[in-house]
């Protein structure tokens, strides 16, 4: 599932869909809405990660560029190049809740698609 906040936004929010969300025939279960939320911009997509380089970034989000630089260097040393496209994107998996965790302890998995050079 992904949603965009505006038509010009380049940010995508995603979450996995658990298997219990499907019926025995593979259809999605429909539940009565609990709140009046607008899901008109939500779409379902299947993501095939392919070959990636990833790193556990520990610290504030503002320090992430240094982690990304280290990932690029590591990938290049191993003979790989970035492989970004419409379907292969930079993405982050947030393991910590920034409302409950000190910035220096935030854990984020940073993942980039790569290909052989």
Automatic annotation (TrEMBL):
Q: Where is the GyrI-like small molecule binding domain?
A: 42-115
Q: Where is this region: Disordered?
A: 1-28
Superkingdom to which the source organism belongs: Bacteria
Residue ranges under compositional bias (Low complexity)?
A: 1-13
Signal peptide feature range: none
Pfam families listed in its UniProt record: GyrI-like
- InterPro entries from the entry? GyrI-like, Reg_factor_effector_dom_sf
What protein name does the entry list?
Answer: GyrI-like small molecule binding domain protein
Q: Which organism is it from?
A: Collinsella aerofaciens
Its lineage reads: Bacteria, Bacillati, Actinomycetota, Coriobacteriia, Coriobacteriales
